[in-house]
Amino acid sequence: MGSEGRAWNGAGMAAGSGYGGGVEAKATTTAVSAAAPAEVPTSAASVDISLPLLKMSPRIIALCKELVEGWSSIDSSLFSIETVSGGITNLLLKVSVKEDNGNESSVTVRLYGPNTDLVIDRKRELQAIPYLSAAGFGARLLGIFENGVVQSFIYARTLSPADMKEPKIAAEIAKELRKFHQVDIPGSKEPQLWNDIFKFLKKAAALKFEDNMKQKRYEKISFREIQDEVQELKDLLDILRAPVVYAHNDLLSGNLMLNDLEGKLYFIDFEYGSYSYRGYDIANHFNEYAGFDCDYNLYPDKDAQYHFFRNYLHTDRPSEVDAQDMEVLYVETNTFRLASHIYWALWALIQAKVSPIDFDYLGYFFLRYGEYKKQRESCFSLAQSFLSELKNG
Fold this sequence. Notes:
Elements: E1 15-19, E2 23-25, H1 53-67, E3 79-86, E4 90-98, E5 104-112, H2 122-134, E6 141-145, E7 148-152, E8 157-158, H3 161-164, H4 167-181, H5 193-204, H6 212-218, H7 223-240, E9 244-247, E10 256-259, E11 264-267, E12 274-277, H8 278-287, H9 302-313, H10 323-354, H11 361-392
Antiparallel strand pairs: 1-2, 3-4, 4-5, 5-7, 6-7, 8-10, 9-12, 10-11
């Protein structure tokens, strides 16, 4: 999502140890084929997201009556609409109707922010959502319209960044993430991370800002340096040969919900989902421990990471995970940590140009790229030392 909640103030996937120019995984993900998703109703209508809620409400109500089964004959006066969140890429609304028995039924309407198609592949997202939903992830997809979707309403609370590092919750996230990584989405299984990063880089390097102050800040950026960094990082990570999975790619606290009464954890918002590397998805999640203040000192230490890895690698008996498998995943994750910083840094540059939202995206670029440079030496050294030991041992 790179979105709701992202803010800033100012079967076995265990990897083995064989060396033959790279680390060979013992087993790739065992894909779990979900049942074929049911046909989802669609509408060519759109909603003007720039309008105040009161003025867009009639169109929202009409869309829900068209797309939600059983709602077509409900009188419009029985509908109520409230904002769930206004993130930095989307607007989420809760639409409710009063039933004859006095109960209330609700759905969520997600409206895409303007120009988000520059950083989000909507076709890829909409292809995946029905299969993820059929596999038990996220809200159920009820309908699709021109600039948004209608989904079932999840009765749960959104996690905070502090919640994610609680050992019990971290274990549940790890177990759920393993299951998520096993879902089979039809189509190409080629990892998209580097394709997306290079596309972002090309777009980011060709911007021009009308605001002089923004333009001056932008001109301080060396895109030649960034391109060289990305290529060197890719070359190193290619040697690690991390397993490819269907990844969420944006597992921040705002995309995690928990029903405390039922103990049910939900992953939501799959806008950035794609086939990618398991280490990237985990590293991106760990980077989000930094929270809304982007305090990367909160990145989990080795003990906390190993707790997560044990539950990810062996959901039934975490204590039986092989130490070597843990080390491989540790190296993999903490090298992909750098790719996460690069991805969101470049994402922020594009948003700085096209987003109408009042947010210091340029500052966010410098924050994330600065963190990349700060962590670069230790992360490269970790991977290079690991590969050297494998080669010599």
